Amino acid sequence: MAAIGTRGTVTEAAGFNPEADVQKLRDAMKGAGTDETSITAIVAHRTIAQRQRIKEAYKQSLGKDLADDLSSELSGNFRSVVLGLLMLPPVYDAHELKNAMKGAGTEEACLIDILASRTNDEIKAINAFYKKHYEKSLEDDVSGDTSGMFRRVLVSLLTAGRDESDTVDEAQAAVDAKEIFEAGEARWGTDEVKFLTVLCVRNRKHLLRVFDEYRKISGRGD
What we know:
Elements: H1 18-28, H2 36-43, H3 48-62, H4 66-73, H5 76-85, H6 89-100, H7 108-115, H8 120-134, H9 138-145, H10 148-158, H11 170-183, H12 192-201, H13 204-218
Helix pairs in contact: 1-2, 1-3, 4-5, 6-7, 6-8, 9-10, 10-12, 11-12, 11-13
């Protein structure tokens, strides 16, 4: 799993002082109304690691959970964003995946956006937290809420078995592209196993080469 604080573009705040940030957050939540500008200035401009230290300092000094206090003070989309920023990456991802499968319908874009873009270690961490927090495996929920080829792709991604090297096998990329074309567009029916093997197991650089080769074979190149 990536080290805490390495995902995203926020850089460490210079002269970071978690105790001072705790006091500013307390002041922002005092009295009538809430100073959302001050809250944003802190949580949106600290790294994940720094936000975790603020949460720890808040609990140590007040004996209360920062997320709970902010949740009671804020509302709407602003509350959702702030609480999301306070979560560790696998916790946030698990939370979003659960929400995507709540109620009628499924937010398929959310499921694929998360599961197709995370590293193997990140997916394992998401699986572990989801199981612990929701007392049900993520695979079971995904399987029960999706169907067909889409379900098979998601379940395959949840196994966290993607090659994570940077190796691009030019010959294999050409073979993969040819087999995908022949399994799909070139004839009726599809060879789903071939799609799953290529899309869910090959590394990302190799996939880009496969897509280039596929465009040539299918005649969809520029």
